[in-house]
Amino acid sequence: KLNIGVDTIQHGVEGLSYLLTESSKLMISEIDFQDSIHVLGFSDELNKLLLQLYLDNRKEIRSILSELAPKLPSYHSLEWRLDVQLASRSLRQQIKPAVTIKLHLNQNEDQTTQVLQTDPSTLLHLIQQLEQALGEMKTNHCRRIVRNIK
């Protein structure tokens, strides 16, 4: 009926849905939304219709997006044990340390347990990487990203 190709209509619908979901995710203001769609070159009447569509549906889009987000496990508790093998039948003087970690997680009101075992040097490397990641979270760039995600 429109005398337009199927691909053109599909790309238009995908673009419109992308515009609305990303705008709703970031909860951008009316002015920012208008600035975003102004560069697309649409008429003023179409820009006003898109703005009204965004304002009418952004809360519903955000609620749908929050339902679609994966429910990741959360930390509950941690148990650890240090095992050291001092000798064996073939080697009488050896030191072979191992750290065993039992991680209790909550996921969807269910409690799961993960048992991990590593040597101390790998554990120290993991600790350094986690501390580096925590340090990155204190940068202004990461704070801005986290603020926009919420």
Helices and strands, with pairings:
Elements: H1 6-26, H2 30-38, H3 44-68, E1 74-85, E2 96-107, E3 110-118, H4 120-137, H5 140-149
Antiparallel strand pairs: 1-2, 2-3
Helix pairs in contact: 1-3, 2-3
Short description:
The chain has helices spanning 6-26, 30-38, 44-68, 120-137, 140-149, and strands at 74-85, 96-107, 110-118.
What can you tell me about this protein's structure?
This is COMD2 protein. Residues 74-141 form the COMM domain. This protein has 150 residues and is an alpha+beta fold. The chain folds into 3 domains: 6-68; 72-118, no CATH class; 123-149, no CATH class. 55% of the residues lie in helices and 22% in strands. The chain contains 5 helices and 3 strands, in the order H-H-H-E-E-E-H-H. The chain has a 3-stranded antiparallel β-sheet with strand order 1-2-3. A hairpin with a 2-residue loop joins strand 2 and strand 3. Helix 1 crosses helix 3 (44-68) and helix 2 (30-38) packs across helix 3 (44-68). It is elongated and about 85 Å long. It starts with 5 loop residues before the first helix and ends with a helix. The model has no long low-confidence stretch (mean pLDDT 88).
